[in-house]
Amino acid sequence: MEGHQTANKDLGTLSIKDLFFKYVRFLPVFLVSVALCLLGAYLYLRYTTPIYRVTGTLIFKQETQNSGGKFNDIFNAKNVSDVQSEIEILKSQDLMERVVNSVQLQTGYFAVGKIKTLNIYTACPFRLNIIKLTDSFSSFKMNFTFPSENEFRVNKELERFKFGNVFGNSYGLFSLTKVYNGVKGKEFNVEWKPTYEQASLFAPMVRVAPKIPGSNIYNIQVDYTNSALAADIVNNLMIRYKDASIDDKNVTIKQRLDYIVTQLIRIDRDLDSIEAKRIIYINENNMSAYEAQSAALFDIQTRSDEQIQNQKQQLVIIDLMTAYLKDSMNNFEKTPSTLSISDLALSSMVGGYNQMQLERKRMLEQKIPEENP
Q: With a threshold of 0.85, does the pTM exceed it?
């Protein structure tokens, strides 16, 4: 404890000059350390290939459960409620093959440097035209050097070619198209891979993660050494995903239409069979004019119903007349008219009865006694 206090007391008594001369002997070590750090940083920045991260945003739309539910059960149509399945589709080899074909990523262009080789994608000053491939399932790599602005050598061979000239090798027949100047003295590598092989390299690079937890908004990320290439992959991946969804729906719709057409054909066949049986039944039972017979029978039935209703009404009227005549209060009154009764005899009797009642009333009005015969 006393040793520490003594050391602190000695440092407190030292001046700036004393401190400088005390630590100046360590200055070379400090400078060497700083130089090494700066050199390491320079080498890292100079020779390390940069990695670019490109991000796109995609929204998974929820579909209502009621839309085409029965058909979905029949045809196993997918619903976007299973987001994990959609993510696997985005990362699938099949979808990436569509991207490779749409952007034509089978051919890669690389600028050869002293230390590293970089993928320059569309920044390459020329394009390789494939006229014929010896084996379309095998990848290959060719080296191009440019002794001048208009001439190039393939795989460092002595023979020179000009832009537009067709050259051949074990891989097939090719030509180069110049895009812009600036190729003199430079070296490039051109790699070609079949679609499935190129897709197998790009597909594992795709990462899909939710942008907002719990939402249907997802980020699609690709890390690659060329930002333009990564951007094309992300953009076309989203486009091809939408196309794949549309294709899937079209397949489902076609299945539904085929099912409906099949059912209509079956129903039409059943109707033809039923019609044939109906015709056979008509011929066997001599019912060729069954429609006219049915109409006549219906007419007879209608008239019979009308007559029955009429008879019922007449019976009701007769019952009323009977009750009227039995009532002692109506002994000397006229009987109601029987115009609605079609029986002529009854109508005649009622008419005679009413005439006698009128005659009696007339005699009484003339003061003729009732006992007078």
A: no
**Counting runs of H as helices and runs of E as strands, what totals does the chain give?**
10, 12
Residue bearing tokens 């490039």: 188
Residue 18 corresponds to which amino acid?
Answer: D
d(CA 230, CA 161) in angstroms, rounded, equals 33
Residue 192's beta-bridge partner residues? 107, 140
- Taking alpha carbons only, the member of 96, 102, 351 closest to residue 198 is 96
Both tokens of residue 69? 């539910």
Q: How confident is the model at residue 2 (pLDDT cuts 50, 70, 90)?
A: very low
In a domain, 64, yes or no: yes
N-term to C-term CA, the chain:
172
**pLDDT-based confidence at 278, cuts 50/70/90?**
confident
Examine the domain organization and report whether 146 and 232 are in the same domain. Answer: yes
- Shared domain for 153 and 217, answered yes or no, is yes
Kindly give, in sequence order, each residue whose CB lies less than 8 Å from that of residue 197, ignoring residues fewer than 6 positions away.
139
Query: Do 355 and 243 belong together in one domain?
Result: no
Boundary residue ending a domain (228, 254, 280): 254
pLDDT digits (tens, 9 = 90+) for 80-118: 457 888 899 999 999 999 999 999 999 999 999 888 899
Are 33 and 101 part of one and the same domain? no
246 and 352 both lie in a single domain = no
229 burial (CB, 10 Å; 0-12 / 13-18 / 19+) is buried
Pairing between β-strand 107-112 and β-strand 151-154 as defined by DSSP bridges: unpaired
> DSSP states of 266-295 as a string?
HHHHHHHHHHHHHHHHHHHTT-TTHHHHHH
Q: Are residues 137 and 235 in the same domain?
A: yes
Domain tally, the chain = 3
Q: What angle do the packed helices 93-103 and 195-202 form, to 10 degrees?
A: 110
Digit-coded pLDDT (tens) for 178-208: 999 989 999 999 999 999 999 999 999 999 9
112/211 same-domain check: yes
